[in-house]
Amino acid sequence: MIKKALLSLTSRPKHQLPVLDVVRSIAVILVIVHDLGCALESNGAQNWFTRFPLVRSGFYGVDLFFVLSGYLIGIQLWKELLERQSIRIGSFVIRRGLRIWPLFYFFYVCLILTGSTGRDQQYGWSDLIYLTNYCNRGIVKGSWSLCTEEQFYLLAPLLLSIAARRTVSLAHYRMALGAGFLLLPVIRALTWWLFAEHFWVHDPELYKAVIYTPLHTHCDGILIGLAIANIRMDNCACQLRNWLTRWWAPPLAITAATILFCIHQAVFAFTAANLVLGMVVFWAIETSVSGWPVCQWLPFYWISRLSYGMYLNHGYITGVLARALVEKGRIEGGSGGMLSASASIISVALSAIVAVATYSLVEYPFLYWRDHRLVRPKQLAEPAASHELI
Fold it and tell me: Is the distance from CB of 236 to CB of 82 less than 8 angstroms?
């Protein structure tokens, strides 16, 4: 089984879009680099690397994951809906679970057995039922985003199945997604007004506590991804696709995003970011970017395939590296920035190596059993594992 797992990393499936491997690789690298910068700052070290804009805003890599998740799962849901006029919710949830649960609970058990949770072990119950994004921080680092994904897996097929009973067209679904995207800033504004003493002040801690993790305030990327999938599956949306691929579409999205971000960060940050990220993903899919030689590089496929494991393990690796760098000193100033930048490359490499082990021993056996033993109609085959969720 280990040999099969390693062989699966050596060649990209023919039907797969190489550019999505690039986008997914960028997403996980952004998250790792950002978390290393945060770990350095939490240990009292600052330099040009920790202040670099791309490092400080690397958390938007999670939103890029959300856009990809919404798109790739959306393609599957729209396809099944069009072919069957319904969605087999149980089968969908089980297949998604076999992708996410094994490695997540493997990390959970390892943390419990090794005592790595410290005083936080009392919070582990929210990880078990995927409510970390609402109840507390949990014990698995980054679990809030996985909880958002799991809640998406349950709600998306359920809501689509309910709507399908009224034979709603893809255009109507698209209008609903647009309304939801516009409603999210309103929900964030009301939430901010309720919890903040002054509406126009920005409090990073309050923002993280009440805005950043809940599904109902941070699912813009998922809605954008679902909308992109909807447009791709709707043969009547050709004119819309043409408009969105015009030269002026990306500058317009960037301009709108900049204006929104400047108006109110807590309310419009995710709206702004996902307008740009959604445009990036849409252009990557719709244009000839996939034909570029750089998109064919196998390292992008490797990182893409290992991204889930890297997402789960990188927090522990960056924490150890940051403490080691601070203890050795010389982490301030220009040379310290270069040392930190080098540490980010090491973090990505170590995270990938650990992910190869967990992919071979934990992820792949369940994926293999799911794809070769779990009965499913061939026509409803899902995207390859490398393009599945975080």
Answer: no
Q: pLDDT confidence of 122, banded at 50, 70, 90?
A: low
* DSSP tag of 199: T
Catalogue the E-assigned strands of 279-358: none
Q: For residue range 310-324, what is the model confidence (pLDDT) as tens digits?
A: 999 999 999 999 999
Model's pTM, two decimal places? 0.93
Give 79: exposed, middle or buried? Use CB within 10 Å, 0-12, 13-18, 19+. Answer: middle
3-state secondary structure 97-166: HHHHHHHHHHHHHHHHHHCCCHHHHHHHHHHHCCCCCCCCCCCCCCHHHHHHHHHHHHHHHHHHHHHHCC
**Residue 195, CB-side half-sphere exposure with 13 Å CA sphere:** 17
Rounded CA separation 111/109 (Å): 5
Model confidence over 25-47: pLDDT tens digits?
999 999 999 999 999 999 888 88
Q: Do residues 258 and 272 touch, judged by C-beta distance below 8 A?
A: yes
The residues spanned by each domain of the chain are 2-8+17-376
Q: For residue range 91-103, list pLDDT tens digits in order.
A: 999 999 999 999 9
